[in-house]
């Protein structure tokens, strides 16, 4: 990851923010890295804005209960009719570094509430893996007043600069000859367990699982890295046996 400096070329800035956002996604899974990077580019002019240079803030987050340092600068907002207005002497959050700004932005998304924490304003965003939805949620839930905020993040930044590459997280494969096992549910009561099995049978899931296990025994060279391949083979086998 590039070292933090305030005169980064565009590509270096993108990589810097992207790697921090990616690691935080792995650690806390709050908001997709591609969206974080697009916001940072848009809201800080790729690190060249007054707030980015003087207050180390890459995002347009106002004080909103912030107990740390602030930076005073006018804010430009957009009304629902498309017209603009200015709010003088607006207090913006200020940080010790750009990294602090990125991490606090994500914390803000995770914790922002106007009723003492009873309702999380951005709950639909947390953990969402679809960047289009995340961008639209940001606009719909009032993160920014711009009427084209979501459209701009998607078209001008995420898709233009292939920012979804930061969303890819390295997978951990099971050791040779082993598989990760997912247990649907566990019961102390055998009767409850059997009732759940019957529910699954009614849904056709048990047939799918049994056929999967048969394939696992019979096809030692099956590539389990691809869940699509497994599903395709299972469905093909079930069709041939007229189970589905």
TrEMBL record:
Keywords: Hydrolase
GO molecular function: amidase activity; peptidoglycan binding
Superkingdom assignment: Bacteria
Gene3D superfamilies documented for this protein: 1.10.530.10, DNA polymerase, domain 6, Sporulation related repeat
Residue intervals of the Mannosyl-glycoprotein endo-beta-N-acetylglucosamidase-like domain: 1-167
The keyword Hydrolase is assigned to this record: yes
Protein's recorded name: Flagellum-specific peptidoglycan hydrolase FlgJ
Organism name: Kineothrix alysoides
């Amino acid at each position: 990851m590039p070292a933090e400096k305030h005169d980064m070329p565009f590509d270096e800035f993108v990589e810097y923010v992207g790697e921090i956002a990616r690691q935080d996604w792995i650690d806390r899974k709050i908001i997709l890295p591609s969206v974080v990077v697009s916001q940072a580019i848009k809201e800080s002019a790729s690190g060249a804005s007054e707030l980015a240079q003087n207050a180390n803030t890459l995002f347009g987050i106002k004080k909103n209960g912030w107990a740390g340092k602030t930076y005073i600068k006018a804010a430009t907002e957009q009304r629902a009719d498309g017209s603009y207005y200015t709010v003088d002497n607006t207090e913006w959050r200020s940080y010790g570094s750009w990294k602090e700004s990125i991490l606090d932005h994500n914390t803000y998304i995770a914790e922002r509430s106007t009723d003492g924490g009873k309702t999380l304003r951005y709950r639909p965003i947390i953990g969402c893996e679809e960047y289009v939805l995340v961008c639209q949620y940001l606009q719909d839930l009032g993160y920014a007043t711009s009427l084209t905020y979501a459209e701009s993040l998607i078209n001008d930044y995420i898709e233009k600069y292939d920012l979804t590459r930061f969303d890819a997280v390295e997978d951990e494969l099971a050791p040779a000859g082993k598989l990760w096992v997912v247990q649907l549910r566990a019961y102390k009561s055998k009767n409850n367990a059997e009732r759940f099995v019957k529910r699954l049978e009614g849904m056709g899931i048990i047939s799918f699982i049994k056929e999967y296990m048969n394939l696992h025994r019979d096809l030692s060279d099956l590539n389990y890295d691809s869940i699509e391949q497994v599903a395709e083979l299972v469905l093909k086998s079930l069709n041939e046996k007229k189970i589905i």
